[in-house]
């Protein structure tokens, strides 16, 4: 499914000759800008207010972020499934269920508990 979506995004960009603009730096900037637009919907509101007031806008901004992320991965030649599963595996080590369940702390809090210098 992700592969089909990525192909559709690539085709969309190619039809418009946007590949010339889609370098890693500019795509990374675009991810950040779109993430800021998502955040703006929450500015000066509670989370529930933003969700109630802007349901469609939230979906659209999230889609923009994901489109740029998938385009970035495509331009870089990354296998999205592989990099996500790899990152989840690393996070599982950093955030073991026995220490992280129900907590919001950064993983360094768990290594400090154990007296470790691990980062």
Polypeptide structure, described:
The chain is mainly α. It has seven helices and no strands. It has helices at residues 2-15, 24-40, 47-53, 55-76, 80-94, 97-100, 107-113. Helix 1 (2-15) crosses helix 4 and helix 2 (24-40) runs antiparallel to helix 4. The radius of gyration is 18 Å and the shape is globular. The model has no long low-confidence stretch (mean pLDDT 93).
What key phrases describe this protein's structure?
mainly alpha, 119 residues, globular, 0% strand, 7 helices
**How many β-strand stretches?**
0
What are the segments in which pLDDT stays under 50 over at least 5 consecutive residues? none
Instruction: Classify the oligomer.
Output: single chain
Helicity, in percent?
Answer: over 70%
Overall mean confidence score, pLDDT: 93
Order of helices and strands: HHHHHHH
Fold blueprint:
Elements: H1 2-15, H2 24-40, H3 47-53, H4 55-76, H5 80-94, H6 97-100, H7 107-113
Helix pairs in contact: 1-4, 2-4
């Amino acid at each position: 499914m992700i592969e089909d979506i990525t192909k559709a995004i690539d085709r969309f960009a190619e039809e418009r000759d946007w590949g010339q603009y889609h370098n890693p730096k500019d795509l990374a900037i675009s991810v950040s800008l779109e993430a800021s637009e998502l955040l703006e919907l929450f500015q000066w509101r509670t989370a529930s207010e933003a969700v109630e007031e802007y349901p469609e806008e939230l979906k659209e901004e999230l889609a923009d972020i994901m489109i740029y992320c998938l385009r970035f991965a495509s331009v870089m030649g990354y296998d999205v499934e592989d990099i996500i599963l790899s990152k989840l595996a690393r996070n599982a080590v950093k955030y073991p269920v026995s220490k992280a369940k129900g907590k919001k702390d950064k993983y360094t809090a768990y290594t400090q508990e154990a007296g470790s210098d691990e980062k």
